[in-house]
Backbone:
């Protein structure tokens, strides 16, 4: 079945960087655009970034430009999100989602906690 | 950016009664070339990721009970739970996927009265 599994979260100090991964299975990963969405504790959903099926086009919310980098490796069926200069406001569960073009499949999420 | 606003923020409904959630976008999400509304509804339970319920404003995702229905067009949309069950206690979000940045409503918490 279609599955997305995020990893790479944890406790990280302010100012540091982190790379999140999302392993896809159960579908032809290279056929679908993909997205990252995050959710701060007790808050709503915030769309962060998207990448086209072949990685040639990338889209970011304005507040993510410059610090967030979305990428993918279709040979490994994996989506990535590189986040730099982390602050406490980046503390959230980070989800990867598939584009159909609606978000039909979500991973369980990976929790990133920014704390000294 | 398209601003998406839900109402109410929370809702308490008796078991078996109807629950209605509204979603309004700051501009139309009806795409003229395909006559589709780029609006989806999600259900999220504590500790779980969002689950897609409705897309194209009114198409139910496979496996979603038929007590869930979506309606509306342009800028005004509604999610209706026709007969609330205990399993429906959750937060519900609408989202526009008409343009980037994709934006979500703030969420509506549905509880049992």
Residues:
């Amino acid at each position: 079945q279609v599955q997305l599994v995020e990893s790479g979260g944890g406790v990280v100090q302010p100012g540091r960087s982190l790379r999140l991964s999302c392993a896809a299975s159960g579908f032809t990963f290279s056929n679908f655009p993909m997205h990252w969405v995050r959710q701060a504790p007790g808050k709503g959903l915030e769309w962060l970034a998207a990448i086209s099926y072949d990685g040639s086009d990338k889209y970011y919310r304005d507040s993510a430009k410059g610090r967030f980098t979305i990428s993918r490796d279709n040979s490994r069926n994996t989506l990535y999100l590189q986040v730099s200069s982390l602050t406490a406001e980046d503390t959230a569960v980070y989800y990867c989602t598939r584009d159909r073009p609606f978000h039909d499949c979500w991973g369980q999420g990976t929790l990133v906690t920014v704390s000294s | 950016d398209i601003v998406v606003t839900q109402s109410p923020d929370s809702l308490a409904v008796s078991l078996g009664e109807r629950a209605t959630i509204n979603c309004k976008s700051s501009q139309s999400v009806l795409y003229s070339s395909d006559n589709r509304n780029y609006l989806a509804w999600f259900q999220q339970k504590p500790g779980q990721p969002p689950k897609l319920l409705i897309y194209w404003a009114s198409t139910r995702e496979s496996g979603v009970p038929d007590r869930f229905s979506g309606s509306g067009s342009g800028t005004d949309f509604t999610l209706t739970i026709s007969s609330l069950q205990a399993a429906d206690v959750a937060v519900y979000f609408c989202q526009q996927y008409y343009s980037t940045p994709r934006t979500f409503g703030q969420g509506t918490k549905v509880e049992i009265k």
In short: The first strand of chain A starts at residue 3 and ends at 7. Chain A touches chain B at residues 35, 44-47, 50, 59, 61-62, 95, 100-109 (CB under 8 Å). The radius of gyration of chain A is 13 Å.
